[in-house]
Amino acid sequence: MRSILITGGNGGLGLAIGRYFLDHDPAARIWLGVRANRSHATILAAAHPERCHLLDLEATDPAAWQSAVARILGADERLDVLVNNAGMHRDCLLAAMPTDAWHQVISANLDATFHGCRAVIAPMMRQRFGRIVNIASLSAIMPPLGQTNYAAAKAGVVALSRTLAKEVARSGITVNSVLPGYIETDALGEMDEETRKQARKGIPMRRFGNPAEVAAAVYFLASTDAAYITGAALKIDGGIF
Amino acid sequence: MQGDELRQQIKEVMVEELMLDYKAVEIGNKTAIFGAHGLGLDSVDALQLVVALEKHFGLKIGDSSAAKGVLENVETIAAEIEKSA
User: Fold this and answer.
1) What's the pTM value of the predicted model, to 2 decimals?
2) Would you call B51 and A125 a contact, using CB atoms and an 8 Å cutoff?
């Protein structure tokens, strides 16, 4: 049995990652970290009642993390994989950016990843096994205008992942980040057609990625096959560089 | 468990959990755990050791200042385990 916690469990990417584990690993038990908005996650959990559960988790709250991890350990007696997927955007040119837009995005993306990693390290060290996959973004290294906050947060996620990887390597825990580019989720759906067309032109593959393609990479990094991969930052972007 | 048997068990846990290049018998009860003149472990080892001591002996070490005193050598660890038993 393998116990997997995925934050941001109601979003397109979180759900795709959950589904990928459920479809490809019969031993996987999925915990989807969600907040008030959980309608999609509820449907997935209902379709897999023995193997997929919802977990109240405000990812920016350390106490919520303690409760979530305690609940998982109480039920499964182990926690094998953490996918820090929760995050948010509030795009704005820096000159006009409200202070709370800066803090909120840093908190939701970077602080949440810090709290999550810190909460799972001790249980994973006891097991001498763990896989942490942090969802960063191509914006960490190639940001568009208006994303100083998001780019800074995601660059922080990459740096945190690489540093933590060194700290826990001896304990059988790997820590990696993935950097998705343009992926067909609700966030991309908000783009107008002209912007989408221009974005596709900049992608060598001339198409957006789909969430299952990111999920496949996360699944691999969480597997025992990836045991010697740690501190990596994997771009999933159709060739943009 | 206490006495020599406890000290031996602590050394075996250290060798296994920290993947030390020593045999348990090579570790003296009063050999410094950290520092160049002892076993030469670092802060990452310290964290792993704290987790291992809780896992194998139920020993909870509250904070880093408490850890400094407890983790000096095998003897101080054993004394702390015996105290909390």
Assistant:
1) 0.91
2) yes
